[in-house]
Amino acid sequence: MVKRSEAFPSKWLSAADLDGGSIIAAIKVASLETLKGFDGVDTKKIVIYFAHKHKPLPLNRTNYDSVAGIAGTDETDDWPGTKVELFVNREIVKGKLTDCVRIRKPGTPAKTKPKKGSDNPTRLQ
């Protein structure tokens, strides 16, 4: 059996590469690059490269803000050496539930949504 990610490999890190788990990686370099968007239009993105075997990751605004918060600066020249945890999160993208790569500070506990009917102090009685 062949997985989609094996049939259509990408040079970019994807949720499939994390196989539902997470990894801790050190940023080697962050560079501004011109990439083709899904619509075929060239767009500039910050791409982070990692110190070890992991594929590079083009950043969206959410992941850029996460790295900037972890590094303590939004100056990408200061990011090398910063350790980040890459994990999979399910989010609605263009109306479809999709697995996405997200970034958090290593050791940060995963956020869980409260169960329906649980004691939630903000819930109206």
How many domains make up the 3D coordinates? Answer: 1
Mean pLDDT: 87
What is the CATH architecture descriptor? Answer: Beta Barrel
- Here the CATH topology equals OB fold (Dihydrolipoamide Acetyltransferase, E2P)
In percent terms, what proportion of residues is strand? 35-45%
The ordered string of helix (H) and strand (E) elements is: HHEEEHEE
Strand order of the largest sheet: 3-2-1-4-5
Helix content: 10-25%
Sheet having the most strands: 5 strands, antiparallel
Q: Output the structural class.
A: alpha+beta
Spans where pLDDT lies below 50 across 5 or more residues: 114-125
Treating each run of at least 4 consecutive H or I residues as one helix, how many helices?
3
What's the Cα radius of gyration?
Answer: 17 Å
Span between termini: 51 Å
State the name of the first-level CATH class. Answer: Mainly Beta
**What does the overall shape look like?**
globular
Number of strand elements: 5
